[in-house]
Amino acid sequence: MTQPLLRVENLQTHFATRAGTVKAVDGVSFDLRRGEILGLVGESGSGKSVTGQSILGLVDPPGRIAGGRVLFDGEDLVTAGEKRLRAIRGRRIAMIFQDPMMTLNPVLSVETQMVEAVLAHDKVGRAEARRRSRDALGRVGIASPEERLAAYPHQFSGGMRQRVAIAIALLHSPDLILADEPTTALDVTIQAQILFEVQTLCRDTGTALLWVTHDLAVVSALADRVAVMYAGRIVETGPIADVIQAPRHPYTRGLLDSVPSRNRRGVPLRSIPGMTPSVLDLPKGCAFQPRCGRADAACAVMPELPENGHAWRCWHPHDADARGAAA
């Protein structure tokens, strides 16, 4: 079996605050192979976005990577210098942020920003860079891309700005794309078009994709595998069909039961009781136990997460024959 393009090993990202140390990412491990799409799913505050930012070294103080390794094509990005990371960002690893204004400069035209992004990594003329930029805008559904190149970010709607940010990420056909809820601001038609484009890109070029989201419907239609995060840890992972059809961890089951389903029309949705705990005051062992109806004394110890196949961190998993409401 070929080596993974990306291997995250025991990644730990901490934030020092006056109230204590926030372990936003607490021992996260996963692999991602060329052409594969991995969905990273969880509630707000589960550590999904920080995991993506940590991979590219984009965590600002008081945050820091406290431990672990991020092996990209065999190179540890945690120990790589800033100069080396700048050479990789954009060219080999692209990131799509949830807020497009984190990507776009409001005082520069779209053409200037896209052309400069091409020229920063490829030795091509400005005419070729402009052609590639125009074509990228067309791929993400922006009408009249030739004219829109001359526009500024404030002349676009929020959804249009997000499409521009996605187009910039696609410019170099990178080896890996880290997408942090990139379709949240888009309508369903454009969202479907973007999902089709990234799936085609992964299939045709071998680009790997880490798709960070809370939308299980998107993940089920897009990803090959899924990793479910809770309180900074991965609690269940596996092939998307296995996890969606037969969730084993109570948290995963709770997420699926809260999704509207055509098969349960008129039946009230079941919500997960309680609130996400503060990462400054997590219970010992499994962080989900205060909200879990299956918890007992054994849950004071966190189970290990097996490396292969459909795996979960739970002493009392749901029966494999039990089907989630979203199935």
TrEMBL record:
GO molecular function per UniProt: ATP binding
Alphabetical list of PANTHER family matching this protein: DIPEPTIDE TRANSPORT ATP-BINDING PROTEIN DPPD, OLIGOPEPTIDE TRANSPORT ATP-BINDING PROTEIN APPD
Chain ranges of the ABC transporter domain: 6-256
Chief subcellular location: membrane
InterPro entries, alphabetized: AAA+_ATPase (IPR003593), ABC_Ni/Peptide_Import (IPR050388), ABC_transporter-like_ATP-bd (IPR003439), ABC_transporter-like_CS (IPR017871), Oligopep_ABC_C (IPR013563), P-loop_NTPase (IPR027417)
Domain of life according to the entry: Bacteria
Similarity comment: family membership: Belongs to the ABC transporter superfamily.
Its membrane topology: Peripheral membrane protein
Record bears the keyword Zinc-finger: no
Species this chain originates from: Azospirillum rugosum
Coiled-coil stretches: none
Subcellular location: Cell inner membrane
Identification of the protein by name: Peptide/nickel transport system ATP-binding protein
UniProt keywords, alphabetically: ATP-binding, Cell membrane, Membrane, Nucleotide-binding, Transport
